[in-house]
Fold these 3 entries.
Entry 1:
Amino acid sequence: MKNYLNDETTIWSWVATTDHKRIGLMFFVLTILALMVGGTFALLLRLEHLTPRYTIMSAFAYNQTFTLHGVIMVWFFLIPSIPSVFGNFFVPIMLGAQDVAFPRINLFTVYLYLAGALVVFIGMVVGGTDTGWTFYPPYSAQTYTALMPVLVGVFILGFSTILTGLNLIVTIHTLRAKGMGWMQMPLFCWAMYGVSVIQVLATPVLGMVLLLLTIDHGLDWGLFDPARGGDVVLFQHLFWFYSHPAVYIMILPAMGVISEVIPTFAHKNPLSYRAIAYSTFGIAFIGFLTWGHHMFVSGMSTFDAGIFGILSMFVAVFSAIKVFTWTGTLYKGAVSLKTPLVYVFGFLFLFVFGGMTGVAQATTSLDVHWHDTYFIVAHFHFIMVGASLTAWLAAVHYWWPKMFGRMYPEKWAIAAAILVLLGFVGTFFPQFLLGNGGMPRRYYHYAEKFQPLHVMSTAGSWVLALGLLLALVYLLWSLFYGERAPRNPWGSRSFEWSAPTPPPKHNFEATPVFPPSAYDYSRPVEF
Amino acid sequence: MSERPVSVWLFPGIGAVVGALLILSFVLSYVEMGRWTTWIHLGIATVQSALVVWFSMELFESRFSVRMLAIITPLFVLLLVALTAVDPATRAPEEVLVPNPTIEPEPNIHPIPGIAYPSGAGGHGQP
Amino acid sequence: MHAPPLQHHFPDIEQQRHAAKLGTWIFLSSELLFFNALFAIYAFYRVKYPEMFQVGVSHNMKWLGTINTAILILGSVCIASAVNFLRLARRGPAIFLTLVTCLCGIGYITIKSIEYGFHFDEGIYPGGAGHFFVEHPEHGLKAFFTTYFLLTGLHMIHVAIAVAILGWMAWWVHRDRIGPWGAYRLGLVALYWHFVDTIWLFLWPMFYLMGART
């Protein structure tokens, strides 16, 4: 049967496609490649930390490795992993549209990603940079490493992010099916809308910051050079004004996935649709007000630090609203424990755990001790990996049947999920203890007493890597040998399942007429 | 949202008002206004921009979503500018720093975290 | 005169045009946030070096800055009127006024370049380079002028882009004999000019008026 995959099979039909599904698929492949590269760097870092001194790389190489690990994972994997893949693929279908608002701009975002990735790759090849993914001056203005390609590559990628956000916002505003109001669209669309607002408003500031660093590094304008009246704390203000909302770019889409998976596998409508929809904006908004909590010990005024500490606490309120709503949705639902839901359970536990450590760190008096230790590293990995990556894996498994028309092998998937979740905890829980015990981050040498925990963490990383590798293998296998998927294998009421599996080029055979709610499990499934 | 043409005198009229505010701001720059200087000049600029945005950028005939955007975005400008400027405004005054004696580590020994520098070097022996 | 093609995924032309307008505004918002970082830099350094910023502001040529502001405002009036004339199906005035706007932009760039020339003559270069900073070694002055060059330089690049796009639009209206249906497209491009004008309405007091000595 003709679908978006086999509709046209020439290379040109892919290279020049304006089909949002093909574009989503291309981003899928690219982000997985980025995950593998960034993950390899992570494994190398963990190998290095098996012993307190030299293990496999020099201190300089170590600095470059953690820098590139951060750059690639944040910008080339996490940020596009859900919006550019599943957002592109499913938002039009969920809205009953044939495509996104600006299909050609959508194609352009793929090439921007590629161009940015290529430039960063060139930077990697000529030696990479050793400033950390945060590029703080004065060191970044002075380092002799290949900082420029990395800055320029990320700058280019920033435009891909902005345009994706722009496209999704306009799509949601203008292409909803007739009769579909804001409060009828699937919750994933709300998450995509929220994340797109952040992408559009925050990423330009990053672009400017990178441009300024490029000018400083290349033309020696000394904008942040204290000898010329500059202030390095100002750089941090500008950098974190983007990078804190960036972490919400990384978590809001994950939350959107959770909001879809839970009702489906609990066969129950969400406890409160509005709570989830509005709290998305609560998080998006408050996320902009909190950047100074990365700078408590930077030399910023204590007054400003106090303001940021208080504001940072508020974001937890909206996250809590979501967690309670999700849990309330699961309660007394007819739960079927499939792989996506296993990942969701992992998400709920790890997100709450990691999130609470976040609230603790928002307290200046505690962060003074934890800042720049492994405690912080553990916290953000709990959220970025334990929550975001886990939700991404849930999304991959949840939507795999719709995207490819094949089922993945359930038993292998559950096994991989267990490996991933256990491996994750094994990798990062010891890091909380390390950080609390005083182990600084980004340190090549460490005191002997930290070695046992480091070894545990490294062992955990191997289990995590094994789980991910296993997932890759059976997913690829399923593309050729997996059981053919029905239109709606999960019995979901959400609108994307009404499209054929896999969807045809224009998504629907006829103009879709959706039921009034995407979550009404009291009625029999219509598609 | 079919745009109907407006009077040909609207935009020159708006331009005249913005121009008058230009002259006002220019003249006021010669007047000693103390603490209010910044706010008055920026206030005039805000009024000028509001006129340009509302009329010349056709906000008066745009939909709610566009209007929301035009209101929200400047608020973000305000947010970054305000919270960034609060930092130097509320720092303790910079005292004249007494230069720290430079710590000379022993050659060929890597400083080890958790252990003070070898004695014989100046400074505070911080880990 | 031909009507614009309706793209297959839009239900009607109204929705398509609204999408284009919303998309343009979102793009302009991202541009404003792009400048936002620079406004923050200015605010930060101004709070840190209040006296030196006032010295710097006084040093700039107020008359030139004000004339430039007036030119941009004139351009705004012209392009807005051009869009209106196109809605009235009066292509001649529309094209003429669009070209006048381009001239305003070119005039702005010329005056700005002359101003930069004066700065360079005095030994004021970005990055605290130049003999001016040897004679006046205060840190705040270096910060002021680097910020000045950054902000006005980036703004000038945007004016140049606006001139180029508007010039192309004037050609498009002429070549394709565009009628009222095309006015909205000229309007979208005009938004870019107005945006650039609005940014300058703030840069002008920031660098020429606030704290200038009487």
Note: Chain A touches chain C through 44 residues (CB under 8 Å).
Entry 2:
Amino acid sequence: MKKFELEKLVEDTINSMDGAQRAEPAPYLLTRINARLQRPAYSTWERISMILSRPGVAIAGATFLIIVNLAIFLTGNSSQDVKVPQSSQVSTDVYSYNTTSALYDLENITP
Amino acid sequence: MNQPELLARIENRDPTVFKDIVTHWQAMVYNTALSIVHFVEDAEDVTQEVFIEVYEKLEGFRGASQLQTWIYRITINKALDLEKKKKRQKHGGLLRQIFNTTPAEEPVNFNHPGAVLDNKEKAAVLFKALGRLPEKQRVAFALHKIEGLPQQEIAAIMEISVAAVESLMTRARAALKNLLEDYYQQNS
């Protein structure tokens, strides 16, 4: 294509909407707008639940909870070797518990 | 429509004023929305949203600007919002948009229903190229070339100076020229 032909084509394309008519919306626009206006407004809780039920928000929320749980779990594990004070240790002797139970003593089968 | 008379009717809570506003400006709103969103269904949704906002904010309208300018402004904001929302959904989320891992989106083929029959094909090429322009250039071009508005009114709608509109138009034309030249060289 020659240069002046190309320039003319480009110019014609840029001006191709000159003299165009306005596009008309579908009929009954006002009826549809009125119907939308009469639709009851959402309450605050409905709006909140609508936001929370969006996939993006739900996934982000779930990921956040998992991360928080993991963080708590990992920090909890590292602080498990905390020593209990001596005075609070309770000896089983105090209560004189018999640690062996006859019920579960398989060698002693006599009643 | 006579603005002082309209304002008086709004102030007096005339129940027929909203109907008159919709009847008078529906084609303008729809046409502007269509030249931005390029889909008939989306343009209809935008038109409805625009008039719902007009209805909700009409009582607060004090005539600081022309009612038409105000409606144009709402239309452009709604149309651009919808377009951004659709792009976000199409690109599959904010993260991908931030890291820009997807190639630039190919604009769709759009045939404007109001285009003159002889120019339909060229108009479709024009809209495809328009889809690649930056937002402000696209809006300024659409308002001037499709809506036929003077630069003063475009400046009022976009809340910028007339010189800025002129600059946007010049840049839009230059960008379109480059895009169209490339297109026709590749398709000849």
Note: The two ends of chain B are 48 Å apart (CA to CA).
Entry 3:
Amino acid sequence: MISTQQRPRYNSVLMVRAKTQLNEIMINGTAIEALPRPLLVFLHSGAVVQLASPTSPWVKLTKEADIDLAYCSTAWQRRRSGEPASGVQRSSLLQFWAHQLDCWSASAGSSIEPSSLLIRIGRGQDELGWQESLEVILAAATLEIPMRVQFEDAAWQSLLGVPDQRLAWQQLLDYKLAGIEVLAFDADADQAALGVHYVDPDATRSSVNQAERKLDL
Amino acid sequence: MTKTTIECDGRSVALDADGHLLDPSDWSRSLAVELARLDGVQLTDAHWWIIDFVRSHCARYGTPPLMRVLIGEFRTSRNDPEMSSRQLYQLFSEHPIRQACRLGGYPKPDWCI
């Protein structure tokens, strides 16, 4: 655990949202334990249940030097009563984004914020999953991070299948908090009229903006 | 959950431990006035605009608005470019969105934003 009274500055910040074995996660071919430290691992959504047991490999990360393990307290309260194992830090999506911005700014060699953020959604989710994904985005919007959200077509169809959640996501467009684009060859005229931008999947995947920060939900 | 009640318009209305209505359909404008009075707040036009906006946002999207959205809409709709988070806290000192939800009859938001 990192011991400092001031807000820690991390060289790596990682959000984990799915219940997954620790050794199954690779970031650009790098295991979590091998990421540059100090490292913050932030567990959100269904991943937080892995903090219930002190013998969980995730909880054991807290014994490693220069690794902090934090969790979204709201996601925890939705799934569990009581407290998670000792050593993990109660946190929030806003704190996650504050640390993420610090990390990106440091890696860019300046104090400026990243010019833009691309949030990619590649798979369908259940209703709570869509709600909590939206909360990740709204937390970023609270900090006025410029961003766009890019859906794979199958993920978008999944959201359309949960009408209440689709409506909740509309606030991103109505209040210009984030753009929404869908990787699909055929545009849905009704959704386009609501402000959804349909883009050519092949052309988009072949043009990568290196300056853009990315987060996969 | 600890429950309390509030008397308004000759009826008893149940609140949860945080002072939010247990049943949002119990809400009325006179009830909002009474809840605000218990907070020591006299509702002005600005308070009402915020409560109505939060109610409308919750009804449309199922979530309360972000504070930046509320401020932006307040500035535009009321032609008041001076509105700021500081001014919002002067109107609703508890927490503007949370307190407006409570006075507007909506449950306590279960998120951390």
Note: Chain B touches chain A through 16 residues (CB under 8 Å).
